[in-house]
């Protein structure tokens, strides 16, 4: 009645092609394992690349502070005096850090403070500083 290639519904099993459920589940499991391994590395990379913005802006603002000192024999606590932004505190272009200036006598310290997700994900480098003498802290946060 039925040939050995037909099932009860009359379909020819020899010509059917596709994936079995087990093959599909193995593929999903492999993708899941790869994602578990890759995601932490990717997250760390994003945090480090966002952190690079702070030292770049700190050095730029320190140079502007030094130029101001040459011109007026004084440093400023108001970042907008340096021609950057409109407020005393400067927000970096990608909005990962706020930079403020502290002045004592003839010295300054610029401090970048992480905000938002950067502050949460980069606990070791929530604050990064540079002084008028070029001292950079914490050292590990300066990428060297």
UniProtKB/TrEMBL annotation:
Classification via SUPFAM superfamilies: Pili subunits
Family matches, as InterPro entries: Bac_GSPG_pilin, N_methyl_site, PilE-like, Pilin-like
Gene3D superfamilies: Glycoprotein, Type 4 Pilin (3.30.700.10)
This protein's record includes keyword Nucleotide-binding: no
GO BP, one annotated term: protein secretion by the type II secretion system
A Pfam match: ComP_DUS
Keyword Transmembrane carried by entry: yes
TM ranges: 21-42
Keyword vocabulary terms for this entry: Membrane, Methylation, Transmembrane, Transmembrane helix
A GO CC annotation given for this chain: type II protein secretion system complex
Protein name (database record): Prepilin-type N-terminal cleavage/methylation domain-containing protein
Species this chain originates from: Colwellia psychrerythraea
